[in-house]
Structures are given as C-alpha cells and as structure tokens.
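Quick entry between incubations.
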Amino acid sequence: MKKFMTFTFKGGIHPSYKKEISLKESFKQVVLPDKIEVPISQHIGKPADPIVKKGDLVEEGSIIADSNAFISSCIHSSVSGKVLDIKKAFHPSLGPTLSIFIERDKSKAPKEYPKIEEQCCSAQEIIQKVRDAGIVGMGGAAFPTHVKLSVPEGKKIDTLIINGAECEPYLTCDHVMMLNKTQEILEGIGLIFRVLQPKKTYIAIENNKQNVLDAFHCGLKTAESLKGAEVEIIALETKYPQGGEKQLISAISGKEVPPGKLPLDIGFLVQNIGTIYAIYEAVYFNKPLLQRMVTISGDCVENPGNYIVKIGTTVTDLIELCGIKFKKNPKKVIIGGPMMGFSQPGTDAAVLKNTSGILFLSEETAPDFEEGQCIRCAKCVDVCPVRLSPTDIMRSAKKNLWDKTEEAYVTDCMECGSCTYVCPARIPLVQYIKEAKRIIAKKK
Amino acid sequence: MNKLTINSSPHVSAPLDTQGIMKGVITALIPAMIAGIYFFRWQAVSVIIATVAGSVAAEYLLQKLRKKKVQIKDFSAILTGLLLALVLPPAIPLWMAFFGGVFAISLGKEIFGGLGNNIFNPALLSRAFLMASFPVVLTTWTAPVAIDAATMATPLALVKFDHIITPYSDLFLGNVGGCLGETSSAALLLGAIYLLWKKIIDYRIPLAYIGTVVVIAAITHIINPKVFAGPVFHVLAGGLLIGAVFMATDPVTSPVTLKGRWIFGIGCGFIAMVIRLWGGLPEGVMYSILLMNALTPLINRATKRKRFGITGGK
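Done. Structure below.
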C-alpha cells in the first residue's frame, strides 16, 4: 500500500476549504417532511414521465415517474401519501420543470427494508436492481448508473476508480459516509466489481481525509466481497478539481480521456461514494434511492452539519426540520458546492438525487466584484485542469468570435471554475465560456 | 430571508486581485526606492514624484477623453511611473521626467487600449524614447553622494570603455553610478524575494534571464578574462536585476505559457549580453526586453499546449 505517495493532476487550485465546520458533529437523520416536490428530471438523459395523477395515493418507495428510454431513470416517492398536484415548479439548475407534489400521510409509518436472505449473484441482476432503484451518479453528474455499468459489446473496463475525493470546499457528505459506512461501501464496491470484473480497483481519497484512508485500510482487510481482488487505496493530493473523473484518471494512471469520449473508451470507470452506497442498499435490501446525505454549511449557518434527507424535501422545509440557525443574513443560497453549484433565488428548490450540499454564504465570503481588465497574468492558464487558455477564449468571446473560441477548444471545458476563482481582475471567465459553448451548440 | 443574489458559478474567489498585485510590486520596490534616495538624495525623490505625476495625469486625461472609467485607483499608472523613475538617471531635468511619465502612459499603454492591451513595457518604451530624443542627458550619470565627483560612469561603461571592473561590494550595495533604482543589487534582491514569496511573479522569467546571462558571461570570461568580465559582475552591474525581476516579468507583455516564459527569459538574456559585450552601448537590458516583448505574441502561438486527451498521456 503506497501510504506515503500522493497522486495528482497538472493544474488546479487550493481554495480555502472550510470543511471542518460541518464535521464538528456527527450526521443526523432528518425527520420526515410534510410534503415533497419531485421534479421529473434529476438525471442526464430523457426526463421521466409521471405514472401517477393528481389525487393518487402512493406508497413510500413506489415508482411515480418512469421512462422507457435507455439513458433515463425512474423516480420514486420518498414518502407515503397523496399526489397533490403535478405542475411546473422551480428546479435548482434547470428552468421550471414538471414536478410531482406529494403530501405525506402522517398516519403511515416509514417502511422497513430488511436484508434480503437470498442474494442475487449475476451481473445482469445487479444492473437490473440498480435500474429499478433509480440510482444515478450522486456526485453531481447524475448519469444513470445502470447505463454506466452496462458496458457495450467490444469494450472492457480494466480499471475501476472509486471517487472519494470530494474536492469542493465546504462539502463533507462523502467524507461522513466513508467514515460511518466503510464496510457497506466496500460491499458496494464488491458488487460493482462483480459486474465489471476490472483488472485493478483504486479507492482514491484526498489526503485531507486521513481518518477515512485509515478506515479503508482497516476495512479492506476484512471485506469479504473484495477478497482476492486487486484493490489499492490511493491518497490524492488535496486540490480542486481532484474529484473530476478525467482528472482522477489522469492523476492515477497518467492517461487522458480523449476529447468527446468517455472514460469507458480507455477502459476506465469512475463511481462516486454516495452512488456506491445506494447500489449496496438497492441490491442487499431492495431499497430504492429515496434519501441521501447532504451537507448544510456556509459562514451564515450557526450549526452546519450533515443530514440524511428525503429526496424532494424543499430547502425551506429543511431549514426548519434540521433546526438551522442563521448567524448572518445569507447573500447567496447555493445548491452544490461553491465552485460549480447553482445560486438560488429563494429556498423553494428541493433536494434531488444529486444534491450534495446546500450552502448559505454571506457578503464577506461571496462579494460582488466589478469586472476588471485582463492583465494576461496567465493564472487562469496555469490552473486549468484541461490545458485551456481561458484568457484567449474570453478575449474572442468578447468580440463575438465564436469560431476562434472553438479553435481554442472551449468545448473541452468542464466549467470547474478554477480560472474564475483565481482571476485577479475578477473576470467571470466561466460565464463567457458557458456562453461560447451555448452558441457553438446552437450552431450545430 | 432577504433578497438573494444569483450569478454564475464559481461563488468564491482567490484573495489576490489586480490592485493587490500592483501594490505588491510597489511594496517590493520600496527597498530600491530607499536605496536610490540614500545614494542620490533629493534628485531621487523629485524624479520619482515627476514621473508618477506625469503618468497619473496622462492616465486621468486620456481615460476621460476616451470616455472610459478613470482607473487610477488600480495603481497601475503609479507603478509605471515609479518603474520609469527607477530606470532614469538621477540628474534628469524634472520636466523631462514628467514628460517621460506622460509618454509611458499615453503611447505605451492607453493608445493600445489601456491596461492589458499594450505590447511593450510602458516604462521601458518611454525610456527608449527619451534615450533617442535626449541621448546626452540619458547617458550622464551622477555619482552617489558618498563619492566626491559630480558625474561618474556606470560600471558597465567602465568595463567596456576603460576596462575597469568595479568592486563587487560596491555593485552589491549600490555605491556606483547608474539609474535611480538599478544600482543597489541588495535592495532589488529583497524585492525579488518578496515578489516570489507572495506569488506575484513567476520564477521562470527571472531565472531564465539571469541564468542565460550567467552562462554567456562565464563562457566569454573563460575565453578572454581580460576583456570579458565574469558572471558575478554581469549579474550585479547595470539594469539586469531590475529588468529581470520587475520589467521582464510584467504580465501584460510577457508570454502566457510556462514554456513561453522560459523562451522569453533566455531570449532576453541572450540579446542583453550580445549588446553588452559586442554592441555599441554598454547596457542592453532595455532593448532586450522591448525586443522580446515584440516576439511575445509569436511565442504564445508557438508554445500552445497540447489539447487534453489528444495524446492519451501527460
């Protein structure tokens, strides 16, 4: 075990992380909300179609929306109750999206999910259970997991990477999961191993989580499902965006995913910790994806922490249910992390399958800046994890020379925000890049 | 909850902003300013005031004329004025120094489109203009106050025309003739350490520049020690330190890529030494930087990094 070597990629930034504030206390299971709001699009791919209508009674764990498209996911109700309405509602990152409003039936007790006696073994059965549980990438990308695990003919996964990086500042939900559910996560990794049969498996964790590295080293010794498998625990340099799958692959193997292609095309597969735990629950307990660990943090919050939240709980309800106290008036409410998360106009949005955190930031942490003149300091060029030149792209975008931005490979940009973070002139580089990508996509 | 702000990610920023960079460079120049005032007394103070006044006045006027927001508070005009003063001879008439400041900002910066758009280092461009227009004044050097003579040749001129090598201790501390800010190597080195520590400049350009000078000086010294002074002399004498640390590292006029910065530094070192050893002038730092500034757009294009994922490896 390479305990002393840390791996990393070229580029990236070292923002102030402020992770300790949400780790002071142990995580809590949140009380059930009185109502949930479930958008039909919480994943990459075709949105699901509602299969219930207004007035229907639903059970906890029953499917309320589904799709027969391959790249899609089904959605369950995380509470038992009645469908109040199906209408367009606010979504954290998309525009107004059709959502299913359900009022909880307080007389019904939460469902129990006992461990299944008969365990299924085959790869196909595991993938089917993952699909039925509605599992998508919970690190933020929300790609339907059953699609990811269904490797097409002719392609093979040689290396499986378990993504325990959690590189965004403030967020600690994966950290808490890894610390408290180590054995379960190892079992989940064992399931994926059975499906993909990779030659090598890496469990990659940033070195600011030493206790997690120790927990995994310990746990691996006794993990039944991974006996005999080639598994290595890797410490990554703590850097943003270390958790990006292309950066992880580059850090561990030195190989780079070609532009426009997937990690699958060079034999790699990366999976997030939260997703793995959901797979474990789905296969061993027949439990669909109904809840997830969410970090509630930010410098405005007096009691930041991690909470297990039912999918569909609105932020407004969450503040009340978790007893969130504010020591400062929030200037920004962000769903996700501060580098790639979405700022919200209010607290109406609901926690979705890929909501890793809700941040309340004050004026001090997130001030408004006046856009200045670019002085070609090239800090953006130095930190870009994909070797772009944001200053050149920005200059072309300002003059509406969209073809030039395409020549500068703007479509490779993963919008991680490192360039904008570091820019001394406070130029909103990611915004120019997003605009360029939008116009280029429209032209095609 | 009161009104919330919505904008594009990211929602946090690094602490260093443009004003912080400019202030950092000005702070790094404080030792050189103090050394200049110590050796050249009142002349130093008045020249600095004159150039800064010229720069700030020109920026204010031109930004108003261009109907742009007046940006004096970003400190870049003050910095340009200060840098210009430090590369001028102490005895320069104040009206000439003021004019130099005006020229630096108007034809060295604003005419290109303002901050971030100029091709040449504004302070050096102004100095080149002054040198071409007033050659005698720009090559008349005052002796530092400790020495009795009123005028004195620079160490580089002494070695080129008279084959006299100034003692290293004088070169290091600054007890020699020369521009206001270039004489004290010790003061400039302090500034360099500060800039590197605060991550305001990248080490590559100064290292490449000074390294190339050392290599060329060492080789020529070995070949003919009587004519060519050694590497230590060439590093401490003349405007190399102020040029390599404060002028060549100007972000606007130097390459954007890491490889480009190495090429830029090496090119500057090469040109500076060629002029110093075989050119008509004793000092080549100014022209070396201006010439490499002209090549910077080409260097940027030539050193574009490989697209991520094209080779499949690092």
